[in-house]
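Much of what follows relies on a compact textual record of a protein's fold. A record is reproduced here so that you can trace the correspondence yourselves:
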Amino acid sequence: MAERIWHPPSFGKPLERSPFDKGIPLRTNIFQFQDDPRFTVREFKYDYDQFAGIRTGKNFPKKIKGFFDELRDTYSINVPVHFVVANNPKGRKCIYVITDVVKPQNLSTLSVDEKQKFQKQYGKLLNGLLKYLIHKFEKKERFLEEIMPVLHDKDIWQYVYGKKEGDTDDRIYLVDTDLFIARPGKWALEDAAAQLNGSIQQAKDDYNIVGLEPLLKECLALQSRIEGTMTKKK
């Protein structure tokens, strides 16, 4: 059977700034299909320095995909992402990261029932992210950076609460699927845990999401463990 070759369809004009991180210049190319608004497409070249040590030929794309599969399959974090390896129009081999566009809900206009559903999902998201960081700390594994949520009046940075095509219910999706991969050093973990602590504290104090006290204590305990290992290294 002949090998299937994926040819990138016609792209629209490249976006100059990320549609997900407010005002942050792009570190890679982000496109939208000219004839299909359901997806955004990121183009990643194989030779980025951040991938040093995990580039292993044919297995490299599989490893990259595995970071997002782990979030979804192990920690119940919705990531509507697909991976394709192909040559770009210049003939250079790239990974195309294709992300479903999620139609967002305005968090400030949710009904009481809808708000309760969102708060329950957001608590599960924070719990999943904490378990993710604990595992990465204990196993000394690489992990995805810049996936900690920040609530705003209408939306969530890094995430979208809403529906993608085919959904019947609103869900929280990680849509900022840039490949920022941290090595298993303590400084990166300390920063990620501090960000998550802030996210939990914000959800508890500013948005009155109940039941987060145990999660906050567990996050503080993780921060203490990380700090303890850093102190021993000095």
Remarks:
- Residues 29-100 form one domain.
- The radius of gyration is 19 Å.
- The longest strand covers residues 93-100.
- Residues 1-27 have pLDDT under 50 and may be disordered.
